[in-house]
């Protein structure tokens, strides 16, 4: 059995780590390089670095900041934000990224998933999906541009399409749970797990130790991503891993 992964996320805007609730009301958390180094010390399995304002500001992810972070950490780095071409992917991989996450650009030009997978391998391409429950259509709707623009896409259908095009992993955030600390959206990940066979990272809603146990025990996800609880020191990676081990979940 593959070990489950614990993955802190650095949402970066204006060169600083930010955190909000339901994708709004962002507050400053600190310096991304220092925070990344702290997670390296704690034993995080991977680190996700999302330049959350890049797409809306029509600019590229800051490669120099990626270089600084990659110089501090030895765990795999997934980088996303403002990536709209294979050349962008190459620039960030050269700067130290191990995997590339694409979201808005993947929805706008799905062929980018295939182009990236063909050039760098499926394992390099992570399709990030921001999803919120739509009561009217009774489905999870996909949002782009940092959660600001609704699409007509059903998240489960889009996940299957992304994998068919070459995505080697899915990073799926429940916008309804983001920053709320009320637990992961288990129904979302159960549906996704039944639909695709690639690794899934769950994001949005982690608030206490039992939330991590629940998402790994009750859904087929491979990784759990969190920000607030780790950034503010409410939980440490070590604490979460100890509880997971005690509950029979295999972790590194």
From TrEMBL:
<comment type="subunit">
    <text>Heterodimer of HisH and HisF.</text>
</comment>
<keyword id="KW-0028">Amino-acid biosynthesis</keyword>
<protein>
    <recommendedName>
        <fullName>Imidazole glycerol phosphate synthase subunit HisF</fullName>
        <ecNumber>4.3.2.10</ecNumber>
    </recommendedName>
</protein>
<comment type="function">
    <text>IGPS catalyzes the conversion of PRFAR and glutamine to IGP, AICAR and glutamate. The HisF subunit catalyzes the cyclization activity that produces IGP and AICAR from PRFAR using the ammonia provided by the HisH subunit.</text>
</comment>
<dbReference type="InterPro" id="IPR013785">
    <property type="entry name" value="Aldolase_TIM"/>
</dbReference>
<dbReference type="InterPro" id="IPR011060">
    <property type="entry name" value="RibuloseP-bd_barrel"/>
</dbReference>
<dbReference type="InterPro" id="IPR006062">
    <property type="entry name" value="His_biosynth"/>
</dbReference>
<dbReference type="InterPro" id="IPR050064">
    <property type="entry name" value="IGPS_HisA/HisF"/>
</dbReference>
<keyword id="KW-0963">Cytoplasm</keyword>
<dbReference type="GO" id="GO:0016829">
    <property type="term" value="F:lyase activity"/>
</dbReference>
<comment type="pathway">
    <text>Amino-acid biosynthesis; L-histidine biosynthesis; L-histidine from 5-phospho-alpha-D-ribose 1-diphosphate: step 5/9.</text>
</comment>
<feature type="active site">
    <location>
        <position position="11"/>
    </location>
</feature>
<dbReference type="Pfam" id="PF00977">
    <property type="entry name" value="His_biosynth"/>
</dbReference>
<comment type="similarity">
    <text>Belongs to the HisA/HisF family.</text>
</comment>
<keyword id="KW-0368">Histidine biosynthesis</keyword>
<keyword id="KW-0456">Lyase</keyword>
<feature type="active site">
    <location>
        <position position="130"/>
    </location>
</feature>
<dbReference type="InterPro" id="IPR004651">
    <property type="entry name" value="HisF"/>
</dbReference>
């Amino acid at each position: 059995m593959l070990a489950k992964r614990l993955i802190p996320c650095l949402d970066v805007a204006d060169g600083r780590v930010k955190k909000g609730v339901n994708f709004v009301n962002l507050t400053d958390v600190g310096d991304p390089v220092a925070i990344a180094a702290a997670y390296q010390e704690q034993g995080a399995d991977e680190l996700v670095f999302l330049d959350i304002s890049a797409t809306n500001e029509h600019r590229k992810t800051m490669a120099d900041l990626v270089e600084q972070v990659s110089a501090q950490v030895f765990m795999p780095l997934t980088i996303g934000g403002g990536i709209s071409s294979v050349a962008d992917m190459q620039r960030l991989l050269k700067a130290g990224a191990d995997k590339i996450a694409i979201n808005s650009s993947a929805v706008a030009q799905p062929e980018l998933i295939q182009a990236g997978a063909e050039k760098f391998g499926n394992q390099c391409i992570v399709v990030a999906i921001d999803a919120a429950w739509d009561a009217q259509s009774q489905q999870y709707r996909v949002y782009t541009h940092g959660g600001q623009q609704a699409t007509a896409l059903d998240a489960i259908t889009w996940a299957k399409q992304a994998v068919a095009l070459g995505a080697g992993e899915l990073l799926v955030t429940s916008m309804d749970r983001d920053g709320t600390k009320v637990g992961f959206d288990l129904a979302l990940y159960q549906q996704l797990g039944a639909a695709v066979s690639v690794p899934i990272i769950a994001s949005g809603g982690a608030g206490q130790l039992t939330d991590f146990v629940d998402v790994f025990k009750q859904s087929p996800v491979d990784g759990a991503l969190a920000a607030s609880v780790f950034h503010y020191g409410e939980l440490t990676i070590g604490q979460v891993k100890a509880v997971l081990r005690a509950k029979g979940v295999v972790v590194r």
